[in-house]
Specification:
It comes from Ktedonosporobacter rubrisoli. GO terms for molecular function: homoserine kinase activity. One of its GO terms (biological process) is threonine biosynthetic process. InterPro entries: Aminoglycoside_PTrfase (IPR002575), Kinase-like_dom_sf (IPR011009), Pseudomonas-type_ThrB (IPR050249). By secondary structure, this protein is of the alpha+beta class. The protein folds into 2 domains: 114 residues, 2-Layer Sandwich (Phosphorylase Kinase, domain 1), CATH 3.30.200.20; 207 residues, Aminoglycoside phosphotransferase (APH), C-terminal lobe (Aminoglycoside 3'-phosphotransferase, Chain: A, domain 2). It is 49% helix and 16% strand. The protein is built from 12 helices and 11 strands. Strands 1-2-3-5-4 form a 5-stranded antiparallel β-sheet, covered by helices on one side. Helix 5 packs across helix 9 and helix 8 crosses helix 10. It is globular and about 60 Å long.
Length: 335
């Protein structure tokens, strides 16, 4: 698969000099002078994240939102949710208020309209698959996710959320993917057939009342830290929105399946249900939502490649994704 040639603007769209960012942040926020600025994640289309450290030893996370990646209302929704969770006592990386009273603003008004925001840092080490196989970390992580879901049950705001519905999880990714699978018609046919099967299985469960509410949107991507005492702090709510909680939880099961480490899921699930027991319909839906993960990933990659912000995914990796789906379907849907 060959991606379109990237333009010079696309190649450089995520880059700014560290000293420029340090100056902009110091002028906008009531913080001590910034001594260092390190790239944590640089992306030309989505968001870039930097770690800032001040002269008095404090550290912050600087988010530079990608052009056209998140709209002003979506960022307002994210900020409102984070402030709500913090008020409820949930450990999250919270946005700092600027000297003008706002929580985010254009980077360089009139010149660079990308939005930027500054967040508190999260103590501890990354919650990743490797650490979550341990009962201590896995169960604490499960309880923390349950607290996020419970604390956000009464969250309301005037900003429209990102909807994690079947269009978002399946049909939009497939639409992005289709042009890139013209040389793999049988695989594309399989993905559409699997999507139809997933929707058919989930529809009666949704009608029975799957739990719907605020979701973080990207739990397994290293977006939480955990301390030795079990404090879990979440950050990067960029993909937050409204969705089925079973779909959110399926991300953990999918990660455990990829690693072939079922303990990750069992520890997480035990901790989650200590705080927030799951209904039978949600448990039945989780394996079906697992199958949406690779489809969403492939579709998101295809969208990036179409825009010229990423290279084409090698056929070998596509084969790996499809192999996972075939195996998952055989083990869980053909019983």
């Amino acid at each position: 698969m060959n991606a379109p040639e990237k333009s010079a603007q696309q190649k450089d769209s995520g880059r700014m000099r560290a000293d420029e960012l340090m100056t902009i942040v110091t002028q906008a926020y009531p913080v001590e002078p910034i001594s260092t600025c390190e790239v944590l994640r640089l992306h030309p289309h989505q968001n870039s994240t930097y770690v800032l450290r001040t002269t008095n030893g404090a550290s912050y996370l600087l988010r530079l939102y990608g052009r056209h990646w998140r709209s002003h209302p979506r960022i307002c929704y994210e900020i409102s949710l984070l402030n709500h969770l913090a008020e409820k006592g949930v450990a999250v990386s919270t946005p700092l208020q600027r000297t003008d009273g706002q929580f985010f603003a254009p980077l360089l008004p009139g010149k660079d309209e990308r939005y930027f925001a500054l967040f508190t840092s999260a103590p501890g080490e990354l919650c990743t698959g490797g650490s979550l196989r341990e009962y201590h970390a896995g169960s604490h992580f499960g309880r923390a996710v349950a607290h996020v879901h419970t604390a956000s049950d009464d969250f309301t705001c005037r900003w429209e959320p990102l909807l994690h519905d079947l269009d978002y999880l399946l049909y939009e990714p497939l639409a992005h993917l289709s042009p890139w699978f013209q040389h793999r018609p049988h695989d594309l046919e399989y993905l559409y057939a699997l999507t139809e099967r997933i929707e058919k299985a989930l529809t009666p469960l949704m009608e029975a009342g799957l739990n719907w509410g605020v979701c973080h949107g990207d739990l397994p991507s290293g977006n939480a830290h955990i301390t030795s005492k079990g404090l879990v702090t979440f950050f990067d709510f960029d993909g937050c929105g409204m969705g089925w909680r079973a779909a959110e939880l399926s991300q953990i099961l999918e990660g455990a399946a990829w690693r072939n480490e079922p303990a990750i899921w069992s520890h997480f699930l035990e901790g989650y249900q200590e705080v927030r027991p799951l209904h039978a319909s949600d448990m039945q839906a989780i394996p079906w939502f697992v199958a949406t993960g690779p489809i969403w990933f492939l579709g998101t990659w295809a969208q990036e490649a179409t825009l010229g912000f990423s290279d084409a995914l090698p056929d070998e990796q596509v084969d790996t994704m499809l192999g996972f789906l075939h195996q998952w379907e055989e083990r869980h849907f053909n019983e």
